[in-house]
Design a protein that fits this description.
The chain is 20% helix and 27% strand. The chain is α+β, with helices and mostly antiparallel strands. 0% of the residues are buried.
């Protein structure tokens, strides 16, 4: 059993050592892109526009009171509605 564990540890160490091998450096030649490569930019910018929207959310909760046995532990549900306005 000791030989088997020793052999397994040797295999793991050999695998780790072989993973640390350095590779030769490759030379990459970069060429400029062709003339039609880049897309034209958008002409309109929406940074200075007023943005509006709606937000909706739901909330489900229950409460527990360990000191009062007559306390109601029913589930409470709620809905959140909102209007958003983003002015630059």
């Amino acid at each position: 059993m000791k030989k088997f564990i020793f052999f397994a540890i040797c295999l793991l160490v050999a695998g780790e050592v072989s993973a640390q091998r350095y590779r030769t450096k490759r030379v990459i030649v970069r060429r400029p892109p062709s003339p039609g490569y880049y897309q034209p930019q958008r002409l309109n910018n929406d940074f200075y526009r007023v943005k509006t929207g709606f937000k909706v959310g739901a909330n489900i909760a229950n409460t527990i009171d360990s000191y009062n046995s007559d306390f109601s532990t029913n589930t409470l549900a709620g809905v959140n509605l909102g209007f958003t306005l983003e002015v630059p």
